[in-house]
Every structure is written in C-alpha cells, then in structure tokens.
From TrEMBL:
The gene is rnc. It is found in: Cytoplasm. GO terms for biological process: mRNA processing; regulation of gene expression; rRNA processing; tRNA processing. Its cofactor is Mg(2+). Mg(2+) binds at residues 52, 124, 127. This is Ribonuclease 3. Digests double-stranded RNA. Involved in the processing of primary rRNA transcript to yield the immediate precursors to the large and small rRNAs (23S and 16S). Processes some mRNAs, and tRNAs when they are encoded in the rRNA operon. Processes pre-crRNA and tracrRNA of type II CRISPR loci if present in the organism.
Length: 239
C-alpha cells in the first residue's frame, strides 16, 4: 500500500489484516503503526521500528521459555540452536509471507514498485505485530499469538526437517556475485570435551560478517553461513 490511502481503504485493509492474523485489535491504531514502514511514516503515524524493537525481545522471550519448558533435558547449546532457526529472519519472513502480510504493509512508492521486496521487511512487520498485540491485550495474548504462528516451525526444526547446506549456498552466491569463496574462522571454543561449544565467523574478502554457535565446527559454520545469507538478503529458494 502506497502513500495515497483514504480512510475507507485503510479501514478495509486493517479489517482484512486482522482476519488474516486471527486477532481483533481493541486499538486498531497499533496495527496500523505495526504495518507502517519507515519509508511511509508521517507525523501522525510513525514507522514500526520501535514496535519491531520490542517485538524482537518478546519473540525471543516467548520462544526461549517455551523451549525451556518443553525440552527439560536439552542442553543450552541445543536450545540455542533451535531458537536461532525459529526466530531467524528467514523463518519470520516465511511465516509472514504465508499469512499474506505483504499486501497490508504501508511502504513508500520506491519500495512498492521495486522488483525485489526485502524478506527482512516482512520479518520486521511480524515482530512489530507481536509488540502491537502485547500493548493491545498484554503478554499472554502476545505469547499465544507467537506460539500459534511458530509452533509448527519449532516442530520442523526439532525433527531436523529444516536442514539445508547453507555453506554451499553461501559459497555459490559469493562465487557467482563476487568471484570469491567465503572463509570461516574459529573465534572461540568453550566447555568440556564432551560438551564443547564452537563460535565461528564468516569472512568475505577478509571482512567479518556473522557469527555462528554450535556443538561442533561444522554446525557453527552452517549457522554462521545461514545468518550471513540473511544479512545479505539472499533468496535461498533460488540457489
């Protein structure tokens, strides 16, 4: 939706969005704010950046608490691995796309006419909506909404059905776009031999990008590669 919006059109958009979310706002202005990208903000309706900030924190807390209670025998490292995938930009963008959020987001004309609509933008809106629901109805409502949207993704991750070779994808992208092969560097090792944790960082043209934490070097590299692909907004469906 671009910056030529009349009140009737806006009301219809917000009504349709609430139907998609399966949540009805008491204060619908919160939803309007959550759907407003910084390229569209006005003096009367700020962008969703502040809501996104809070929504990210609520999302992390909800998923962390759920995993902590559901898997009492899982190590901190395993819980962290599951959480990192569930709250990733790729996962949130996927959920947002399945909900059809793109059609409700208010953006400037430049973004609306762009051939490439950033996945991160949809993910950010999803986080902003979580915060909007929190302000509208409290933490329990935000908790329930978050789990309703993401519980299936948690099951997918726990059953290892999400696995992709992100290192291979990143290498393919870098070779094709930059003529360069990414490298990985171990920056930290901790824990006893039977439960060691590795932290690695991706380097592209010797510039550090993202870190990954895992129970072995291979796992840490895969996580770092996935986060780097998200940072670079690479569409992994086309690789």
């Amino acid at each position: 939706m671009t910056q030529t919006v009349d009140n009737k059109e806006l009301e219809e958009k917000l009504r349709a969005c609430q139907k998609k979310l399966a949540y009805s706002f008491d204060n619908v202005k919160l939803l309007e704010n959550a759907l407003t990208h910084t390229s569209f903000k006005t003096a009367y309706n700020p962008s969703n950046e502040r809501l996104e900030f809070l929504g990210d924190a609520i999302l992390g807390m909800v998923i962390s608490e759920y995993l902590f209670k559901k898997f009492p025998d899982y190590s901190e490292g395993k819980l962290t691995k599951i959480k990192s995938v569930v709250v990733s930009r790729a996962t949130l963008a996927k959920i947002g796309a399945e909900m059809g959020l793109k059609q409700f987001i208010s953006v400037g004309k430049g973004l609306m006419t762009s051939r490439s609509f950033p996945k991160s933008l949809i993910a950010n809106v999803f986080e902003a909506i979580i915060a909007a629901i929190y302000f509208d109805s409290g933490l329990r409502a935000a908790y329930d909404f978050t789990l309703r949207c993401l519980k299936n993704e948690i099951d997918i991750v726990c059953n290892n059905k999400h696995d992709k070779n992100y290192k291979s994808m990143l290498q393919h992208f870098c070779q094709r776009q930059q003529g360069h092969i990414p490298r990985y560097k171990i920056i930290k090792q901790s824990g006893p031999d039977h439960d060691k944790t590795f932290e690695v960082v991706t380097l592209i043209h010797n510039v550090e990008h993202c870190t990954g934490l895992g129970n072995n070097k291979k796992e840490a590299e895969q996580i770092a590669a996935r986060k780097t692909l998200e940072l670079l907004e690479v569409n992994t469906d086309n690789i």
